[in-house]
Amino acid sequence: MHRLRCGVIFLDGFLGHLAERALERAEDDRITTIEYVGCLEGPSAGRKWARLGWTRSLGLPDECLFEADGITICMSPQTQKGLRDKWVDFRDGQIVVG
User: Fold this and answer.
1) pLDDT at 27
2) What is the CATH number for 55?
3) Could you give the residue ranges of the DSSP H alpha helices within the chain?
4) What is residue 64's three-state secondary structure?
5) Of the four, 5, 35, 54, 68, which is 20 to 30 A from 85 by CA?
6) CA 65, CA 67: separation in Å to the nearest integer?
7) Is-contact 10 50, C-beta < 8 A?
8) Which of the 8 DSSP states describes residue 2?
9) 91 class by beta-carbon count within 10 Å (0-12 exposed, 13-18 middle, 19+ buried)
10) Residue 72: which of 80, 62, 82 has the closest Cα?
11) pLDDT tens sequence across 33-88
12) How far is CA 50 from CA 12, 26, 47, 82, in A?
């Protein structure tokens, strides 16, 4: 378990998943991003989920960069706010937030 300075908690399953993803991009200049998304309307209204992506590491603001177990991850201020005091895990092939 690792608690980031923004209050987000990464559980061991998620940290392991991050490590695997970081190895996929070890030779290029990209880092993992996490987004916390909420749907406001339509058939998925009210649902929230987290998803991972990639971004170039150049020019990212320091307040969006975090390190957990040696892995750098980028989170927008909106994602940081949405995930504050929540845990993020990886179970059964999916990112789970609680």
Assistant:
1) 64
2) 2.60.300.12
3) 12-24, 77-83
4) helix
5) 54
6) 7
7) no
8) E
9) exposed
10) 62
11) 999 988 888 888 888 889 999 888 889 999 999 999 888 999 999 999 999 999 99
12) 16, 23, 11, 10
Higher pLDDT, 23 or 69: 69
pLDDT tier, 22 (very low <50, low <70, confident <90, very high otherwise)? confident
**The total number of structural domains that make up the chain:** 1
Whether 95 and 88 have beta carbons less than 8 Å apart is answered as: yes
What average pLDDT score do residues 6-11 get? 97
Distance set, CA 76 to CA 15, 23, 26, 45 (Å): 19, 23, 22, 22
User: Which structural domain range is residue 89 located in?
Assistant: 2-97
3-state secondary structure of 16: helix
The span from the CA of 14 to the CA of 7, in Å, is 16
What are the start-end ranges of the E strands in the chain? Answer: 2-3, 9-10, 30-38, 48-56, 65-68, 71-74, 87-91, 94-97
SS3 category, 21 = helix
